[in-house]
What we know:
Layout: H1 3-11, H2 18-48, H3 53-81, H4 83-109, H5 115-133, H6 136-146, H7 150-178, H8 185-204, H9 229-257, H10 261-287, H11 294-314, H12 318-346, H13 352-380, H14 382-400
Helix pairs in contact: 2-4, 2-6, 2-7, 2-8, 2-9, 2-10, 3-4, 3-5, 3-6, 3-13, 4-5, 4-6, 4-8, 6-7, 6-13, 7-10, 7-12, 9-10, 9-11, 9-12, 9-13, 9-14, 10-12, 11-12, 11-14, 12-13, 13-14
Amino acid sequence: MTESSAAYSLAGTDKLAGKPLLLLFMGLFATAVGQAFVFAIMPPLGRSVGLDEVRITAIISTSALVFTLIAPFWGRFSDKVGRKPIIIIGLLGYCIGSLAFAILFAAAGSGWITGTGLFLTALVIRSLQAATMSATNPGCMAYAADHTVAQYRTRTLARLSSANSLGMIMGPVLAGLVAGFGLLAPLVVASFLSGIAAIVVALGLSKGVPPRAPQNQPKRIGYFDARVRMYLISAIGAFTGFAMVQQTLAFRLQDTLGLTGTETAQHAGLAMMASAACSLFMQMLIAQRFSGPPVQLVRWGAGLLASGTIAISALDSWTAILSCMALIGAGLGLLLPAVAAGASLAVGPEEQGGVSGLVSACPAAGFVLGPISGGFLYQQNGPEAAWGAAFILVVVFLSTLRPMRQ
């Protein structure tokens, strides 16, 4: 047994808890809060400087594509240099990118940059931010997998996933409060939070399992690897449908209820908060207590997602939309940690970095086509965006019913 594998074996004889879990939680929480800010304010912020729905959603989609392509690299790279440096790179990238985004839109509000120049600059800044921030999730997930045996894997990764849910709950609340100082204020706060998280992780998190020697690296794992294919494709499909709903929700609320830009950000934030609250509830109540095969949670989560999206497609009142977003959040609360746990358990210790990168890329992969296709369908006919998402999520649910290859 090599020194690296021995260290892994030693580190993986327990469940991750205490200070290391708290520090990973803080890093993921800071990023989730920032993302909640962006999702809540981007539609009204973009419209306020003359960007239309397609350009606004194109910024989100392009950055998601970059995230999808780069996250697996960070996962594999963490096998060579260690998990901690990768986590710090991701947090610092988010910090710098959020501040740059705020400066750009401040300049646009003053008329210094407009039209195509504004759109292309926003695209570049957001894409560079995505390229670096994509390091945080695979680094955190691989660190947790390194220090957790199979018996506790689902529970531990569900706890880490709850950081995203809690961030999506707190983010809209903070965004609604901070937006009173202007739509740019949430971006500045997001930059500050991720910067603080980077410092705390750098000072407090142990190095963990030693990096593995390059000669020990296995054949590169991919999305269509038979061991993890169902988990990864289900997650990509689920987040594609979810992105179509989420990224057109603010447009729908503003146009249906006749809201101002700030009111739209607040209503969209509240809907996202309800979704994240239910996600957190399901992770704590079910996922962290579940001891069966992860594929069962994937199926339950996909079923809830499909049901909530069908309902939100057919209903138009504020109360109905809020309730449906809660149901959709409950589905994600079961599906995401189950995908992470199932994929992690399907591969060996030497592949944890690679599979963590792929799993981390799945939500972003859903946001590649989801927002821009949703924006296009919304421009053609508002309800078509939600019905398109419902179709995708029904297909995802049906695909999870197929027997898994053992």
